[in-house]
Amino acid sequence: MSLILENVTKIFKDGPKEFKAVDNVSLEVKPGEFVGVIGPSGSGKSTLLSITGALLAPSSGKVLLDGKDAAKMTGNELTALRLEKIGFIFQAAHLIPYLKIRDQLKVINIIAKQNDKDQEKRAEELLDHFGLSHRLNNFPNELSGGERQRVAIARALINDPKIILADEPTASLDSKRGRDVVERLSQEVKGRNKVGIMVTHDERVLDLCDRIITIKDGKLVQSEDALISH
Amino acid sequence: MFLAVKELVYSKTRYLLIGFIIVLVASLIFIISGLAKGLSANNASSLEDLPADYIVMDKGADTELAKSTVPKSDIEKLQAIKGVKDAAPLSVRMANTTAKDGKAVNIAIFMTDKDSMLIPKPIKGDAIKNKHDIILDETAKDDGVKVGDNLDFNDIKLHVSGFSENQRYSHTPVAYITNEQFGKQANSDEETVNAFAVKTNLDKDEIQSKMDGYSVFTKKEALKGIPSYSEEQASLQMMIVFLLVIAAFVLAVFFYVMTLQKRGQFGILKALGAKTSYLIKSLLGQVATISVLCIAIGAGLTYLIGQFLPAGMPFVISGEMMLQSSALILVMALLGSLVSMFQVARIDPLEAIEGGEK
To answer: With a CB-CB cutoff of 8 Å, which residues 188-227 of chain A face chain B?
Structure first.
């Protein structure tokens, strides 16, 4: 599945004033490609990610996921799209405080009506893959920040989404843990041929991206291949 | 229900606190309903349990039995109607007498025919054999009257041949009598009674259409004619209504605040692909679970309290009444959660990105 943005613009109204958070952005991300999005605060990075993640409708332009335009879908279709096709990782882990780690993934299966033995096994494998198998029966407040963020990634991957979107996933982590988290994301994108987009402020993890996009004042000003390789 | 139950278990304390309030409110609703029912029976069980369907009074009586006067002979009109199974005259007099120990006793005297369907079966002693016999409600024994006693009513002596149960009128025990002497109105040559009781398959309007110049009342309507009956019931009903509204608001406020607190979580769940309907089901599941549990505990508590109430206290609970009140509380609880439902529906998944809980 590929992701194409065509002339996407998002206008926010602030009283009588209008301002373009995203200004005529076009972008294509191919399967297996991990794209980093950087830019100053308020440049429209998160808005762009929200539009890509079917959380926000663009004012104009097309958001094509496998050729289908998400900008034209209804609320329920978008919800289903997020559930089945998109894995979202937020700035903070945003785990549900009253669910044990095992259940953080299970609830997604329940919502997707796929709560069976296979998915249960998959959840355990995922959590094991992220080094969390000893934490299955703990509540989020018993975990460290890094562990919580890894649970959030596992949760984003449980439905095997084709698109992985991460909004500053390292913001709440120290540099070592942050890098570890991004490495795992990158592995998932490349190893399983997914579309990956990560908004970040953290220049130390940019070397893990295949391509870096810079956004300024809502405009895409630069699109280049990562210079630093590892 | 997965989320609903997991959260209830995790946040036990706060849900226990709200549960405690609901248990108390539910118990209070049950107890007041029991009192209303008990008072109603204490006041008017003779009419509530009257073995008839309608009571026919004169046009001006306005449901008040004692105000009504009808010529006794008109009962033939009633009996002539096709579909009327039985009809009996009924007159009511409030009287007082003295028990053997000298205590004053108030008694409501119900006069009817010798072979009337209205005469209750004695639960103790014998049935009425002659015109000086009465069947008295057993609660008269609290005033010192026993089966076999003779009671003086001015110039007439009456003999208590048996006790009946659930025969009270205007908070006094009822004595059934077949003595026509009591049916006579003062200053009237014509033989009159207060009203006719009718047993029939016909409905009220059908009887009414055949009885010109009369008013036909259901037993429930006739209850209102008993002095103080409506006032007693209305004040208790008002308390129950207030409690139901309070229950709804307490739950509404609680879940509203909880929902406000969980905006971030709801945003995340929506961003992860949960439909609003799923989240609302979860919310309603919580409200229903808490309500049903608390109502059940409240019902148990009421039953327990009922066991320890003093014998003289008018308190009657029935399964039907409990079920009715329970259903009402549950409906009010769910109504109370409407505000939170709208709240949940309005939450934007974008809130997950813009912040929310860590």
So the answer is: none
How many domains are contained in chain B? 2
- pLDDT tens-place values along chain B, 358 residues long: 899 999 999 999 999 999 999 999 999 999 999 999 999 999 999 999 999 999 999 998 888 898 898 998 899 999 999 999 999 999 998 988 988 888 899 999 999 988 899 999 999 999 998 888 999 999 999 889 999 999 988 778 889 999 999 999 999 999 999 876 665 555 556 688 899 999 999 999 999 999 988 999 999 999 988 888 999 999 999 999 999 999 889 989 999 999 998 888 899 999 999 999 999 999 999 999 999 999 999 999 999 999 999 888 889 998 999 999 999 999 999 998 999 999 999 988 887 666 543 3
Evaluated on CA atoms A17, A41, A161, B6, the torsion sign reads negative
B281 and B308 belong to one structural domain:
yes
CA distances from B152 to A159, B104, B358 (A): 91, 11, 85
- pTM of the model as a whole: 0.81
The A residues from 70 to 129 touching B (CB cutoff 8 Å) are 76, 79-80, 82-84, 86, 88, 90-94, 96-99, 103, 106-108, 110-112
Which of the listed CATH numbers 3.40.50.1820, 1.10.10.10, 3.40.50.1220, 3.40.50.300 matches domain A32-46+75-225? 3.40.50.300
Interface predicted TM-score (ipTM): 0.88
Q: How far apart are CA B161 and CA B150, in angstroms?
A: 9
A93 contacts on B by Cβ (under 8 Å):
358
* Domain residue limits at B141: 47-225
Torsion, Cα of A191, A197, A203, A207 (10° steps):
30
CB contact under 8 A, A111 and B271: no
